[in-house]
Amino acid sequence: xxxxxxxxxxxxxxxxxxxxxxxxxxxxxxxxxxxxxxxxxxxxxxxxxxxxxxxxxxxxxxxxxxxxxxxxxxxxxxxxxxxxxxxxxxxxxxxxxxxxxxxxxxxxxxxxxxxxxxxxxxxxxxxxx
Length: 129
Known about the structure:
two-stranded antiparallel sheet; 4 strands
């Protein structure tokens, strides 16, 4: 199985996980606001992220926390215990791993130096005297 880097800690892992999670839920008696995002991480970082999101959402989600948020995070935590990459993880990390086109035989691109290695002078050559 391919090893992929964890975007959170940088360690190579054979079990990268990517889950769509509620990142913030605000429930008021007459309405709710819901933000979600995809979290990509190795299993241990994923469980840390789930714990952090649960602490963030426990007060604003109030009544919806035990009904919606806690089961969602619990299922994601249980799924993080499985081996292998999740289906979305490989798709999301693959573009980051693409070669840039600069192989070992080609030098990396150089930064543009407007002064050609010379120390810039205080005198502006384009300014009229």
